[in-house]
Specification:
- It is a single chain.
- This protein is α+β, with helices and mostly antiparallel strands.
- The chain has one domain: Cyclic Phosphodiesterase, Chain: A (Alpha-Beta Complex), CATH 3.90.1140.10.
- 34% of the residues lie in helices and 22% in strands.
- It has a four-stranded antiparallel sheet. Strands 5-4-3-6 form a four-stranded antiparallel sheet.
- A hairpin with a 5-residue loop joins strand 7 and strand 8.
- The radius of gyration is 17 Å and the shape is globular.
- The two termini are 30 Å apart.
Length: 234
């Protein structure tokens, strides 16, 4: 059995301003694996900021399309890669609107800060559904530890159903694209205002261009890194 977990994410090109911004905020470059030290928005020192970004740093800067999963016993990474390449080849790149800094809850007791599209994108919703459904045969069933970690009692009935069916409670009907920037924090609104100013300063054009699907793999130390990038349209 392959103990590693895989995930399909949106992740901007490593040379882009959006990737540089997101990776600096979370404190790690998931393309190179390099730790990025020193980022601190106004009012925070770098050490305090790193304490606020431990969760997104582990996953790398990304937006979830298909959440982390273990491979099914009869599946291989080669099989998964082939299926993902075929799925990406059948799509076309598209613009999904402007990103903005906002706060989300997704069932957490406290909000977290994320980049989200300024308006819902039907194209993103369709892409997410095709990936979630199209690759689910490669996902191993949830085990007890994975169920306990998600704490299903805190989910709605629809989210519990999605969690059992697709391995992620916020798939399909409850899907909302977001690039997580911080842990869940009591002061998320204030931090979002500060990060919004930094985001506007660093990005001349905050338009999200969806041009590839990116396969991430979790390393033995728990960090996710980019394994392969699959351009839409081949």
């Amino acid at each position: 059995m392959n103990p590693l977990r895989y995930a399909v994410y949106l992740a901007p090109p490593p040379e882009s301003a959006l990737w540089r911004f997101g990776s600096a905020v979370v404190g790690r470059d998931a393309a190179s694996g390099e730790a990025l030290l020193g980022f601190a928005p106004m009012g925070f020192d770098a050490a305090a900021w790193r304490d606020m970004t431990t969760e997104p740093r582990r996953y790398g800067f990304h937006a979830t399309i298909k959440a982390p999963f273990r491979l099914a016993e009869d599946a291989s990474l080669s099989d998964l890669s082939t299926a993902l390449a075929e799925l990406a080849h059948a799509e076309r790149p598209f613009a999904a609107g402007r990103l903005a800094v906002s706060t989300l809850t997704l069932g957490e007791a406290a909000g977290f800060v994320a980049l989200t599209p300024s308006a819902p994108s039907a194209a993103i919703a369709r892409l997410e559904e095709r990936v979630v459904r199209g690759l689910d045969a490669f996902r191993a069933p949830l085990n007890d530890a994975e169920r306990a970690r998600r704490d299903p009692a805190r989910l709605t009935a629809r989210q519990r159903d999605a969690f059992e069916r697709w391995g992620y409670p916020y798939a399909l009907a409850d899907f909302r694209l977001h690039f997580t920037l911080t842990n869940a924090l009591d002061e998320a609104e204030r931090i979002a205002e500060t990060l919004a100013r930094e985001f506007e300063r660093r990005l001349a054009d905050p338009t999200l261009v969806v041009d590839s699907l990116v396969l991430f793999v979790q390393k033995p130390n728990g960090d996710f890194v980019i394994d392969q990038r699959f351009p839409l349209g081949g």
